[in-house]
Amino acid sequence: MRLPVLLLAGLLLTGAASADGLRVAAVLDGDTLELEDGRRVRLAGIEAAKPPRHANPADGRVWPLAEAATAALADLALGRRVALHGPAPIDRHGLLLAHLVREDGLWLQSALLVRGLARVHTRPDARAYAAELLAGEEAARNAGRGLWRSRVYAVRDAADADGLSRDRDSYQLVEGVVLAVSKSGGETWLDFGADWRSDVTIHIGRGAMREVTRAGIDPLSYEGRRVRVRGWITLRNGPMIEITHPEQIERLEREAASATRQRSDPGDDDLWDDDEGEDDLE
Fold it and tell me: By the 8 A CB rule, do 30 and 84 touch?
């Protein structure tokens, strides 16, 4: 899938690579590769299907979706010249986070998304082109391609608090109707159930609220609305997703009746674990 002309122009205007680009010397997994100058790049804004973080390669277990994603990236990029675009920060593993465009104009992130071999995973320092990325993911999900045929990657029901509690420390897409929105001390909570002490909750802290407001989002308007949110599942008075940037929330069109209630201070006696985990492929 080629970039739309206007988007390609925008990428070129913000690009930091040479006009000729660099050749891809190796593909390490479904969203990570090595350039001929030795730099390793992780494709910004997406997460390809991969084995779980604690999988042991010695046990011989096969992870078909992960292998398909790696093979697809190799077919798309190995030996080809690519240009790096976007801010290109360095992550905690020393990898560049960047958008990569092949010499013929093919956008690698989009190509993987529309094949259903990756899903959108933005972060505060890797948010560029989120709308275009989400459109590619939506097309693959609606068509049931790749990882969207697997229940491991299915969009989760926000009403299933027990199931999401069991999946703590995993990255999930969660969808449901927001029953109540509450604000206190510059923070905001969006609750999907009748009891905020145990239901699925979206939390937007003070810093993130500033970004959400700059993006023109009023969380109070989400009460009674169906939304899709993506992020790491932690536990604090039930399953919680912490919002760090506005691209994590999509407001969907369908509406539902709302329920209004008050939230008190959640306190500090419940478990709050920010460690990241990985999905298990099945």
Answer: no
